[in-house]
Design brief:
Layout: E1 2-5, H1 11-20, E2 25-28, H2 42-51, E3 55-58, H3 66-73, H4 77-88, H5 91-105, E4 110-114, H6 123-135, E5 140-141
Parallel strand pairs: 1-4, 1-5, 2-3, 2-4
Length: 151
């Protein structure tokens, strides 16, 4: 299982990184799969991934609730983590976690996506940690080249 953040990259560099890791399903774990950054809103992202032969799944229940996003923006990471862990125990999150568990258990090379570049400051790290605990899978945090980096 892998995780990736898109804060510092372009859709093309994201896809290139996913291809290098041989990811076959990208799981979007944003509560709101919209972005001001071109190519990262749900429809555009799914289309770009499909063109690259990578599946796309949005699991809204694994996104951070508004209160948690506000805590993260304020730099209150302990509060953010408590809010998200409480959210993860809820019914919608547990249902989406079970779906994610099935994808990984079926042998798919799955990568969790969110905006935050640093997985230590993002809920996707918590989701990956929970899945690792349940399935015993190893988690790899990958990072695409930043926008503007030389190719």
């Amino acid at each position: 299982m892998w995780t990736i953040g898109y804060a510092e990259t372009t859709p093309e560099r994201l896809v290139a990184c996913l291809r290098r890791a041989r990811i076959d399903v990208l799981v979007d774990v944003r509560a709101v799969p919209a972005s001001r950054r071109p190519g990262f809103s749900k429809g555009a992202l799914a289309a770009g991934l499909q063109a690259a032969g990578i599946g796309y799944r949005h699991l809204r229940g694994l996104g951070t609730p508004a209160e948690g996003r506000a805590a993260a923006r304020a730099g209150q990471f302990d509060r953010f983590e408590r809010i998200f862990r409480d959210h993860l125990a809820g019914l919608e999150a547990q249902a989406d976690l079970a779906e994610l568990e099935q994808l990984v258990g079926d042998g798919h090379r799955v990568c969790l996506l969110c905006l935050e570049a640093d997985p230590r400051r993002c809920h996707r790290g918590i989701v990956a940690e929970e899945l690792s605990r349940r399935l015993g899978v190893e988690v790899h945090h990958i990072a695409p080249e930043p926008a503007g980096a030389e190719s």
